């Protein structure tokens, strides 16, 4: 059930950001979200963008957030509820995750790039050892899925959109009852 929700959210992100748009006749449409049409992007540019996003995931998993200053634009924008929309806010958000889940790790399951966007579908794992969003430490190991879209501008992460399995996380932490 959780995977179905994440896959649905991922599909919605793909369509929203032009990575899988079709018109009413089922034919691919031009990517309207990007200033750089997909047809003009070199394959090497797309691979470079994917490598940059892989580097972000490595940084998040390692906890070396100082590296974000080198790969995230100074005017970075976070499009997500409840998170600061700055590079320093991004660092603070992930430092808070690491404080609560010291063994936190993101594993990329799928990555796609088109135009100036890179989509990743990840599995996040970790053990809650400290307070997280007001939830006292549970010492529970969690596994959830996330879908993220990163926008790359001038070789830097300029913006980020994400969806993650909040219901699954709260269930695994014991805040919500298990379903069915």
Structural features:
180 residues; alpha+beta; 5 helices; five-stranded mixed sheet; Nuclear Transport Factor 2, Chain: A; globular
CATH class: Alpha Beta
In the sheet with the most strands, the strands line up as 1-5-4-3-2
Q: Radius of gyration, Cα only, in angstroms?
A: 17 Å
Structure annotation, total helices:
5
Structure classification: alpha+beta
Helix proportion range:
25-40%
Distance between the termini: 10 Å
Coarse morphology: globular
The averaged pLDDT comes out at 81
The parts where pLDDT drops under 50 for at least 5 residues are: 11-39
Strand tally is 5
What's the architecture, going by CATH? Roll
Enter the CATH topology name: Nuclear Transport Factor 2, Chain: A
Number of domains: 1
Residues in β-strands, percent: 25-35%
Order of helices and strands: HHHEHEEEEH
Main beta sheet strand tally, sense and closure: 5 strands, mixed
Explained architecture:
The chain has helices at residues 2-16, 43-62, 68-71, 87-100, 166-172; strands spanning 72-79, 105-114, 117-127, 141-153, 156-164. It is globular, with a radius of gyration of 17 Å. 33% of the residues lie in helices and 28% in strands. The chain has one domain (2-172): Roll (Nuclear Transport Factor 2, Chain: A). It is built from five helices and five strands, in the order H-H-H-E-H-E-E-E-E-H. By secondary structure, it is of the alpha+beta class. Strand 2 (105-114) and strand 3 form a beta hairpin. A five-stranded mixed β-sheet has the order 1-5-4-3-2, with helices on both faces.
């Amino acid at each position: 059930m959780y995977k179905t929700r994440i896959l649905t959210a991922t599909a919605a992100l793909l369509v929203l950001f032009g990575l899988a748009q079709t018109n009413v006749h089922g034919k691919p449409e031009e990517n309207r979200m990007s200033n750089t049409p997909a047809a003009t992007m070199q394959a090497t540019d797309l691979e470079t963008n994917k490598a940059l996003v892989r580097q972000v995931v490595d940084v998040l998993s390692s906890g070396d957030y100082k590296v974000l200053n080198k790969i995230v634009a100074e005017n970075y924008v976070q499009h997500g509820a409840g998170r600061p929309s700055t590079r320093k806010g991004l660092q603070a958000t992930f430092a808070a995750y690491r404080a609560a889940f010291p063994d936190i790790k993101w594993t990329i399951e799928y990555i796609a790039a088109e135009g100036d966007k890179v989509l990743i579908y990840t599995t996040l794992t970790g053990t809650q050892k400290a307070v997280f969003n007001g939830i006292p430490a549970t010492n529970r190991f969690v596994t959830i899925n996330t879908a993220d879209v990163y926008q790359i501008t001038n070789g830097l992460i300029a913006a980020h959109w994400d969806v993650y399995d909040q219901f699954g996380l709260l269930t695994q932490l014991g805040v919500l009852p298990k379903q069915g």
